[in-house]
Amino acid sequence: MLFDSIDRYVTSFERHYVIVHDEDLDVFKPFHRGRRVVLPVSEFLPQWLHRIPHMRWRGRQYWWSFRAKPVSGWHTQQLVKIKAAASLPEDRYFLIDSDNVFFRDFDVSTVANPNALPVHIYQGGVTNGHPFHVDWVEATHRLLGLEKPVFPTDDYIDQIIVWDKPTVNAMIARIEAVSGRPWDETLCRIRNFSEYTIYGIFTTREMATQRPFKITTDSFSLTEWETTLLSKADIVALLESAAHEVALCVQSYNPTPLSTIREGLAEFYARHEQTPQRLETA
Length: 282
Fold this sequence. Notes:
282 residues; alpha/beta; 3-stranded antiparallel beta sheet; 35% helix; globular
């Protein structure tokens, strides 16, 4: 659904990189064509980090090494995002969670150089009532060598984020300078981190005079964060409520079936005289 929606609505991008687990490459091979490039996750993980086969805990895979405690797939996906943005050839990237689907036209060139980089925040979104986010902010300040944070503070978590390659590389250099270790080893050692929090705080605190950016509270994605089962009518209502958003994200932990999401999208298209394109494809 994400691939089909990008093909229909998103323009002016150079490539759509799809990074998948090595064992899933054959499944995604038919999509590796044109501007869509399918790459194995192993290309972006350090060689000293090894997947623990046949082991899952709370539904998560785990990786081990002699350099740090075991880390989960939730951690490794963050390492992959950082490494990919630092090493792939383009200068700016949209990081899109795979449970998004675009439902409106979106021209990527609107945020390409020389336009200022949008940095999305939820103002004052991290409070003592959000312990995980508090931990991520505190860990970020230690990683970057910053003073202890004061709460409430801004939150940088979202479903579609724009990253700037030189900023990512500067962030990596700062982590290594502060820790005295490779950045990926440092993150595996602390384990409790958020890549979007690190990038957001580093950008807004350290890069203002070097890379142009603009703070925005407008998200690209209309997100359903709750675990309540949604109906087709609920999906349509969400889409109709959109203001500036161009994509819908029903979180992967939400129990709503994909068939219901497809039906809601089809109803939305019908109301707006749009023709759905291959939305029946899994």
